[in-house]
């Protein structure tokens, strides 16, 4: 009973803290001379508008049931069946380019398109980062001094330099030499950057497995690769899921830096919308919310995978 009462009390305190933070931001916004226009932001996430349908040639309008037919003097016909409203009447004389009808169009706005690019960029980068990380992690613990030193050099070089600088190097130098487009250069920079951190996570996961398991596998006649494939890596990868998830969440947020090489990701799309609307606060709060949706979804997926793996043990 006391435990339930304490939990209820702490939950109330949690809610009060959230209310206090919300009130702080609300009253803070009242202190600045700014007009909030949230109603203007949604159209940049999902755009609904009336698209004009124009006459392809001179002629006469004919309305037959729900069909709008444009008939030219030479007998050519244009049948329009999909529309939301008509701008002409039956037997009206129309000319090429005249608006004869409108159709309601619903399509993703620039922020949602930028979110899709960010998602695509992140997924591809994560895929290659895992491959780079596993290979480099195995090299890092290898007994071959050349492989081990190569792995250490790569890891320290990447972790010791800013991602923004690496993006510039990949785009302006490596991208020029290998003729990479912006998207490919951005993916390569993010994958190589994240791969260095994944390598250390993999190394730590492998070294957390007791050496006795490796010795037992060797005594059963398994070679190094069989031991890693069937015994060590399956266990190590389970232990590395939480830090991997944290790294990939960071990668999603770090992907915003590729906007400096003119990739229209979520951040660049947000900058362009701010330029056209002069509503920076609403736009950047919306951009932050969209990033939060991505990272929260990845976090939830990671927790789901952890539970599934825990049930399979």
From TrEMBL:
Q: Which Pfam families does this UniProt record tie to the protein? A: BPD_transp_1
Under CDD domains, the record lists: TM_PBP2
Gene Ontology cellular-component terms listed = ATP-binding cassette (ABC) transporter complex
Q: Does the keyword Transmembrane helix apply?
A: yes
- How does the UniProt record describe the way this protein sits in the membrane? Multi-pass membrane protein
Q: Please give the Gene Ontology molecular function terms for this protein.
A: transmembrane transporter activity
Task: Fetch the InterPro entries from UniProt.
Answer: AA_ABC_transptr_permease_3TM, ArtM/GltK/GlnP/TcyL/YhdX-like, MetI-like, MetI-like_sf
Ranges annotated as spanning the membrane? 7-27, 111-139, 151-174, 180-199, 283-305
Q: Which GO terms describe its biological process?
A: amino acid transport
PROSITE patterns per the record? ABC_TM1
SUPFAM superfamilies referenced in this protein's UniProt entry, alphabetically: MetI-like
Keyword Nuclease among record annotations? no
Q: Which UniProt keywords apply?
A: Amino-acid transport, Cell membrane, Membrane, Transmembrane, Transmembrane helix, Transport
Domain (ABC transmembrane type-1) spans 115-302
Cellular compartments annotated: Cell inner membrane; Cell membrane
Family the entry assigns: Belongs to the binding-protein-dependent transport system permease family. HisMQ subfamily.
Q: What does this protein do?
A: Part of the binding-protein-dependent transport system for glutamine; probably responsible for the translocation of the substrate across the membrane.
Designated name of the protein: Putative glutamine transport system permease protein GlnP
- Per the UniProt record, the source organism is Deferribacter autotrophicus
């Amino acid at each position: 009973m006391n435990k339930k009462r304490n939990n209820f009390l702490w939950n109330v305190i949690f809610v009060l803290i959230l209310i206090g933070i919300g009130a702080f931001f609300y009253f803070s916004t009242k202190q600045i001379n700014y007009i909030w226009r949230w109603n203007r932001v949604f159209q940049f996430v999902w755009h609904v508008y009336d698209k004009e349908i124009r006459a392809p040639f001179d002629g006469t309008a004919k309305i037959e049931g729900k069909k709008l037919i444009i008939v030219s003097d030479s007998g050519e016909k244009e049948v329009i069946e999909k529309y939301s409203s008509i701008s002409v009447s039956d037997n009206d004389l129309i000319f090429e380019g005249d608006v004869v009808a409108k159709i309601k169009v619903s399509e993703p706005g620039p922020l949602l398109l930028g979110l899709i690019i960010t998602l695509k960029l992140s997924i591809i980068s994560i895929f290659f980062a895992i491959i780079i990380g596993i290979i480099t992690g195995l090299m890092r613990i290898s007994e071959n001094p050349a492989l081990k030193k190569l792995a250490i050099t790569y890891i320290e070089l990447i972790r010791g330099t800013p991602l923004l600088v690496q993006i510039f190097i990949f785009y302006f130098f490596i991208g020029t030499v290998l003729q990479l487009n912006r998207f490919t250069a951005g993916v390569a920079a993010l994958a190589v950057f994240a791969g260095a951190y994944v390598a250390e996570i993999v190394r730590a996961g492998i070294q957390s497995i007791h050496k006795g398991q490796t010795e037992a596998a060797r005594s059963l006649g398994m070679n190094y690769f069989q031991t890693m494939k069937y015994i060590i890596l399956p266990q190590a990868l389970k232990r590395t899921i939480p830090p991997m998830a944290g790294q990939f969440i960071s990668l999603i947020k770090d992907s915003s830096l590729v906007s400096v090489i003119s990739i229209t990701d979520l951040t660049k799309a947000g900058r362009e919308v701010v330029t056209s609307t002069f509503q920076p606060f609403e736009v950047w709060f919306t951009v932050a919310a969209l990033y939060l949706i991505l990272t929260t979804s990845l976090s939830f997926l990671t927790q789901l995978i952890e539970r599934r793996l825990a049930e399979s043990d």
